[in-house]
User: Fold this.
Amino acid sequence: MERTKIILKSGKDEAVLRQHPWVFSGAIKKIYGDPAEGDVVDVYNNKDQYLGCGHWQEGSIAVRIFSFEPIEPNYEFWKMRLTNAFQLRTSLGLTQNKKTNVYRLVFAEGDYLPGLVIDIYKGAAVIQAHSIGMYLQRHDFSKALQEIYGDQLHTVYSKSKETLPRNSAFEVENEFLFGNQSSEVVIENGNQFEVNWVNGQKTGFFIDQRFNRELVGEYSKDRKVLNTFCYTGGFSVYALQQGASEVHSVDSSAKAIDLTNANVALNGYNDQQHQAFAEDTMTYLQHCETPYDLIILDPPAYAKHIDVRHKAVQGYKRLNATAFQKIAPGGILFTFSCSQVVDRRLFEHTVASAAIQSGRKIRILHHLSQPADHPVSIYHPEGEYLKGLVVYVE
Assistant:
């Protein structure tokens, strides 16, 4: 069957020629065919030069290119892509690591598989598709994962219902593709965490903060620590492990507080060392009386689209300004943004504005990002979504 041919307008091929994998709907001049959501299409410029092939999708990003060479995307192609991702994680020391058995195997454009995320939790693989095209390949991915990992893999779970476009005509349900285990106790840098990929947020755990959690631990000894938006309590466990004098965890979700308390107990800590509060972070910060020596601000994405970026920036500013007011002199603030449309420079300016507003002097100690199992293609800088600062507050 002949594939749909997408022709771009004059001058709209420059990004693709630089191997940027997104084709926006406004760049398309003509479509030869009637592609359905998830179909593989071929992209050409206005001079009939072949540019690449990818998945068709209704919306602003019309094509997500997975190959800049003419190929047949069959099972062997997808297995090759997953094998390459596995080899990179092996070179990072992640696939046979006794101290860490949770990591990201596939990071979308960073692994030349736009629209696909696969996380590994000990012997389970959780597949999350952000495009119909990748969702339709889930059985091939499951088969390839079983061949790559062999008897090390006991479960493959497809969890894409929450991440696929809401206006899609597809009826999508989360499902087990292999095995049926729904949770696992994983180890990250020697700390234990109970992960449930069926009922948890995202794929079950925020893997992208692994290095940053370790850094929090290094700064926590003898400090009173506040971990906001705590979810599973990752930062809290690391702080306790490195000798924090006291740790408080805050999240608006009672379920998250239960997860945090369970993980704290799993690692052997008690109520004298740790307390958790099911409360809105801003409300908690505004009403807490005793200052903290170290505060972690790791909110969910305030902006997922460019049209709400300004509102998000104001939200980050209010949050950081409030934290600056509640941190002790000589305190350390870890502050993050995972909003892709808020770039690193804008985020840093926002934190600076918050410090000025609160009347505190700050110095940057570290610029933080995502770990190496979330690689960023040099041709797709948008892949660097996680920004963080560690600041010393005078």
The radius of gyration is 22 Å.
